[in-house]
Amino acid sequence: MDINQFLLPESPVQEIQHPLLEQKKIKLAIKRDDLLHPIISGNKWRKLKYNLINMQTQGCDSFVTFGGAFSNHLYACAMACKAFNLKGHAIIRGPELDKRNPTIKMALACGMQLHTVDRKTYRQRHNPEYLASLQNQFPNSLIIPEGGTNQAALQGVMELAQSLPKSNYVVCATGSGGTLAGLAKGCTGNTQVIGVAVLKQADYLNHDIRQLLTTQHQGALWQLLTDFHYGGYGKFTDEVWTFCELMRQTFHLPLEPIYTGKMLFAIWQLISQDYFPKGSSITAIHTGGLQGLDGLKYRGLIPR
After folding, report:
1. Catalytic pick from 71, 141, 167, 176?
2. What is the total count of domains within the chain?
């Protein structure tokens, strides 16, 4: 595996023009990381990049990771297997494998090995004893956490932070906390990083993010907003989906309602409520995940 293949041109930045923004004197830009890589987009590429480099430098012949059946991380890992001719294993929250599910179908087509476990076993995915047993089962494999969040992932997200235009605020959707932590580590002290939690009861993520940053954190101030989950992880309201469609039609900005749609809708509401001072500049991170739309269509949650 040639490390030079990971040296990609930076994704573009899209400026949004809208009467609300003019009225509130706010500048809003979207970092289009959904366009970063042709098949492994957004924060999933950022997080995987240095994990895959570590896999090579440590002499591992495969990796093992974790995901739900519709997981963006699972999809990205499967695509990495295909693109870079890697061997990958995924522990899937089961108990059964639905081979009609578009994410599962793609993972299998990419040659990834999928291993279903029951929910009780899946909850052990952070348990050191369980991880040690997996290391015994796959002895020459690099174990990558669910969502790809670890210190190697932060390296990739810090590169994202350093590519951003100068802003007062940088905002991202937050699931496991890795993207928020990497942005906080990579942005300057003049920028405030805001994470929009996409799951219910997400206050525990504050602890996880602090653990990732360590006590020596010297980067940007950060905070996690936990009131914009719109029903919880994997759930969304009609209002969120209508907003996603409006953004696609008006600005040619494709969104899905699980991560980026919630995040940008939250920003829109906060701007309306004068949360951001007049004259503020905001950069919102489009973290990709558009493959999730196929899963939502498959489950009948959005129109085909």
Report:
1. 71
2. 2
**Who's near 181: CB < 8 A, 6+ residues apart?**
149, 154, 157, 209, 212, 213, 222
Is 281 catalytic? The answer is no
For residue 153, tell me if it sits in a domain: no
CB-based burial label for 301 (10 Å; 0-12, 13-18, 19+):
middle
Q: Whose CA is closest to 292, among 87, 49, 42?
A: 42
If residue 31 lies in a helix (H) or strand (E), which one and from where to where?
Answer: strand 27-32
pTM passes above 0.85: yes
- Name, in order, each residue with C-beta under 8 angstroms of 260's C-beta and a sequence gap of 6 or more: 34, 173, 286, 287, 288, 289
Identify the residue with better confidence: 34 or 6. Answer: 34
- 191 and 109 together in one domain: no
Share of the chain above pLDDT 70, in %: 99
Task: Check whether residue 204 and residue 291 sit in a common domain.
Answer: yes
**Interval 226-267: pLDDT, tens:** 999 999 999 999 999 999 999 999 999 999 999 999 999 999
Residues 7 and 9: their CA atoms lie apart, in Å, by 7
Phi/psi for 116 (5° steps) reads -80, 145
Q: What percentage of the chain has pLDDT greater than the value 90?
A: 91
Gyration radius of the chain's alpha carbons: 19
State the Cα–Cα distance between residues 288 and 46, nearest whole angstrom. Answer: 11
Q: How far is CA 132 from CA 7, 124, 125, 129, 143, in A?
A: 33, 11, 11, 5, 10
- Structural domain harbouring 191: 3-38+158-298
**Of 17, 16, 26, which Cα lies nearest the Cα of 274?**
26
**pLDDT (tens digit per residue) in 60-99:** 999 999 999 999 999 999 999 999 999 999 999 988 999 9
